[in-house]
From TrEMBL:
Alphabetically ordered keywords of this record: DNA-binding, Transcription, Transcription regulation
Span of domain HTH tetR-type: 15-74
DNA-binding region: 37-56
Single annotated GO MF: DNA-binding transcription factor activity
Region (Disordered): 191-210
SUPFAM superfamilies hit by this protein: Homeodomain-like, Tetracyclin repressor-like, C-terminal domain
Species this chain originates from: Arthrobacter oryzae
InterPro entries according to UniProt: Homeodomain-like_sf (IPR009057), HTH-type_TetR-like_transc_reg (IPR050109), HTH_TetR (IPR001647), Tet_transcr_reg_TetR-rel_C_sf (IPR036271)
Short name of one Pfam family: TetR_N
Keyword Ribosomal protein: no
Official protein name in the record: TetR/AcrR family transcriptional regulator
Lineage of the species this protein comes from: Bacteria, Bacillati, Actinomycetota, Actinomycetes, Micrococcales
Length: 210
């Protein structure tokens, strides 16, 4: 169920409570990790548990609301800029860079929603639509490979987001895999060195090649 769509307009005080809860959730996930208790989030927001549960049925719903806000604030403005960029491939990577910045900086939110990727459909729909527009435009311009489908793109973006599990949270180590991705989908490989390599972070395997 999409509770955001089902919500009735809130009174001013109730809207402030929702805003405080989402802000507190964002802070708590950053400070305490993906397993932070809801009671801690309620206390940080300065509301009681009953108020939290009146607005959010469970932890998943709260995580998605916090992640939705970050995407709206950080990626939303970039989408307009990307769609206005003459080179659609350049625009596409503006969106991807903004998405990866959010994924890295809010790695705990991404981890908390892992395994529930289907739940992300509603909050990433606008972004996916913009990626589809930019992909089609870039293919018509001849700058993006013509044999790539949106199914490919969604899978590749999911793979890129998974990179955050192997990098230091908040770092820009995601730039190297994004550059490799760019090399793979452009019709002409960009003439630039790859961004520097970063060691695997929090990984259960070691890189045998260093």
């Amino acid at each position: 169920m999409n509770r955001d769509a089902d919500r009735r307009p809130l009174r001013a005080d109730a809207a402030r409570n929702v805003d405080k809860i989402i802000t507190a959730a964002h802070q708590c996930f950053r400070d305490h990790g993906p397993d932070v208790p809801l009671q801690t989030i309620a206390a940080t927001a300065g509301v009681g548990p009953a108020t939290l549960f009146r607005n959010f049925a469970d932890k998943e719903e709260l995580v998605l609301a916090a992640l939705n806000r970050q995407l709206r604030l950080r990626v939303g403005p970039v989408i307009g800029q990307a769609l206005a960029t003459p080179d659609a491939a350049d625009g596409l990577f503006l969106v991807i860079d903004a998405l990866m910045e959010v994924a890295s900086e809010d790695a705990n939110l991404v981890t908390a929603v892992a395994g529930r990727r289907g739940s992300l459909t509603g909050i990433t729909g606008g972004m996916v639509e913009s990626v589809a527009v930019l992909l089609g435009r870039g293919q018509r311009q001849g700058t993006l490979r013509s044999d790539i489908s949106m199914t490919d793109m969604i899978r590749l973006l999911a793979m890129l987001i998974g990179v955050v599990d192997t990098i230091m949270p908040g770092s820009d180590a995601w730039r190297r895999p994004v550059a490799l991705f760019e090399d793979a989908i452009r019709t002409e490989r960009p003439r630039r060195p790859l961004p520097p390599q970063a060691p695997l972070y929090n990984a259960t395997i070691e890189d045998p090649l260093g």
